[in-house]
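ok so for the tutorial part 2 we go from a plain amino acid sequence to predicted structure tokens. step 1 is just haveing the sequence, like this:
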Amino acid sequence: MTLIDWASGRMFQLVHRHNLIYNTCWEDPRLDRAALRLGPGDTVLVITSAGCNALDYVLTGPGHVHAVDVNPRQNALLELKLAGIRGLEFEDFYAMFGRGRLPGVRRIYADALRGDLTPWSQDYWDRWIGFFDNARRPFYFRGTAGGFARLLNLYLDRIIKVRYWIDAILAAATVSEQREIYERQLRDRFWSRPLQFAMGRDATLSLVGVPRAQRVQVEQQYEGGIVAFLEDCVEAVFARLPLRDNYFWRVYLTGSYTPDCCPEYLRPENFQRLRAGLAERVSVHTNSVQGFLEKHEGWITHFVLLDHMDWLSSRYHFLLEAEWQAILRRAVPGARIVWRSAGLRTEFLDRVQVTVDGCRRVLGELLSYERELAEQLHARDRVHTYGSFHIANLVA
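step 2 — the prediction. this is what the tokens look like for a chain of 396 residues:
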């Protein structure tokens, strides 16, 4: 390990061990719904992140969703959402998690939410519930990803002064209108040399949950490296895909959702379904994927592993092998697994060695990929900041 690797790793750990990182999920659940094909008898394991997608999955009717995360702050956020579903009327719930601001939230929290949280989450929100009552800095500019979004908005508003065109592109009726605004008014102003420099730095990327291992993957696999990759991602979002329902980018560009552009759990009809019982099918676990599966006694039919295997692929390959050994132990035959990667490929995964029936096998022999479907879905990804999307079935 080089000194740069060590310093970058320390920076990433410092950020991730002491902060709420994600205040909203940065993975498109529309892709996941098509890839997972959940049914009433299914049990899902998903890495919690901000909990939005765990709530999205349960709306499709699986038997249970286990939200697992090593960062207790991420689980505290999902617990707060679940408490809000049980204890708030929709108008207050939407103000809190849709607009990112609920005036008087401290009293409402004490009266209607706190008692429904675990002790760790109570301690966390006792200190930080004010995130939801600040007119100048709403919740979606909190946490490290939200802090990055706030800096981005300062750059847009005060440095390159393009707020008029940001509002215009978000309101555009067609993709062709979006493309014209982006190419004529935004692209050259946005991608200034200072921004390009900042986006190539590990310290900047760590704020949005990108460790050095992922940056290196992109540098090795994408022509032009990380900055060219990010420029192409942004162009795809603003000039090639419809923005009218892209709530991922809207919330970070404006600080809030709208009733017509928001996650499914923030729609009134879905809130009522969650409140009527579906929310009880979500459980929250502070643990690693491996740690949870080694304690869990039931079977899992679907796994949503986000992009965390990128993090383990270089320095922590032994942990990746231990995690997959735990997955194989708890997965039903034919279990369906989806994940994302910063890289264009994840060959490192096929080389993972596991023990099956007393014999050493490589994981590539145990997975049946649905590459065509994955590529079709990835092309429509509204977030569009991952290099690849993967769907595999566990060979019985």
